[in-house]
Amino acid sequence: MPLVQISARNRAAPISADQARAIQKAHQRLAPEAPILIMVHGFKYAPDCPGHCPFDSLFAPQNHSAYTRSRSWPHALGLRPGRESATEPLCIGFGWQGRGALHRVYRRAAQAGQALAGLIEDLAALAPGRRIDLMAHSMGARVVLSALPRLRPGLLGTAILMAGAEFRKPAEAALASPAGQSLQLINIISRENWLFDYMFEWALAPHLWRSRSLGRGLGRGLIRGTAARVDLPIDDTAALSALKSHGLTIAPRQKRICHWSVYLRPGIFGLYRRLLLNPALLPELHQSLRANAQPTRRLQWITSSWPPLPFGGKSTS
Q1: Is 3-305 a CATH 3.40.50.1820 domain?
Q2: Following CA atoms 101, 106, 108, 110 in sequence, which dihedral angle do they give, to the nearest 10 degrees?
Q3: pTM for the full model?
């Protein structure tokens, strides 16, 4: 399993000579349809920060028992160290400084997006013609979206945004760029994340009451989008039924409030693996989601419909 760890530094993400050789070697060995997968963490993670380093947890080859709210994304995708498969992706863990005050990290995420764009261009030069996919959680979605206006069209394949921490307006602007228009995007959302969406909106734009985060979806309604833009509410029974019709069984919601269910939920990485290894699945999945959705239903984000949170008791996630 090829796995390369790269960190953003001063709006750039340099690739070492050894890493470049490893990437070129993997490119020569992998099947043409195997993608490069760039994984992007979110808020409160930072490279080389003890207890918060994504390379020790989210991007590690295997799960680590010390991290209870994270899991190895490569391991969850079915990738194993030492196992060579020509169809599996070349994984790139992209680290950036995601620690600090929320408003500062939000600005820094855009700078990390500039570094990510440069990294994508470098990868395209090292592995010509190979599709580059993206997977991002939380504020990592802003990093990914901030990179799009800086990229040439045609470099990217699929982006999976999990509980994305970004506002809808800049997201739509990024997706309207040439690179964004050629991108397949699936926006993973859940009412488990409503508290985090609410706090994100009010912490960064309390005066803009119409500002809405990606957690509320890219548009109105339960399921909305073209075949290349899909909102997937993983807490919705109709959506889960649609996934099951494609052989994708995802466990129902297990917690009222959880920012990490988008990668901790049992079965969720089976969906991600299928989307990454079979890009043609997304248009098919979109049709199934539309067929299973109830046309009159709307995503409900009314916080008063939830019982009071036990802030003085046990953790909710």
Answers
A1: yes
A2: 180
A3: 0.90
Q: Could you tell me which residues come within 8 angstroms of residue 125 by beta carbon, excluding any fewer than 6 positions away?
A: none
Distance, in Å, from the CA atom of 140 to the CA atom of 147, rounded to the nearest integer, reads 11
Please answer whether residues 268 and 250 qualify as being in contact, where contact means their C-beta atoms are separated by less than 8 angstroms: yes
**What are the boundaries of each domain within the chain?**
3-305
HEC readout, the chain: CCEEEEECECCECCCCHHHHHHHHHHHHHCCCCCCEEEEECCCCCCCCCCCCCHHHCCCCCCCCCCCCCCCCHHHHCCCCCCCCCCCCCEEEEEECCCCCCHHHHHHHHHHHHHHHHHHHHHHHHHCCCCCEEEEEECCHHHHHHHHHHHCCCCCEEEEEEECCCCEHHHHHHHHCCHHHHCCEEEEEECHHHHHHHHHHHHHHCCCCCCCCEHHHCCCCCCCCCCCCEEEEECCCHHHHHHHHCCCCCCCCCCCCCCCCHHHHCCCHHHHHHHHHHCCCHHHHHHHHHHHHCCCCCCCCCCHHHCCCCCCCCCCCC
C-alpha to C-alpha distances, 139 to 42, 43, 70, nearest whole angstrom: 4, 6, 15
CA distance 127 to 81: 22
pLDDT tens readout for residues 295-308: 544 444 434 344 44
Question: For residues 172 and 163, what is the distance between their CA atoms, to the nearest angstrom?
Answer: 16
The 10 Å Cβ neighbour count of residue 68 is 11
In total, the chain counts a number of residues equal to 317
The token pair that represents 254 in the structure block = 């297990």
Say yes or no to pLDDT of 271 above 70.
yes
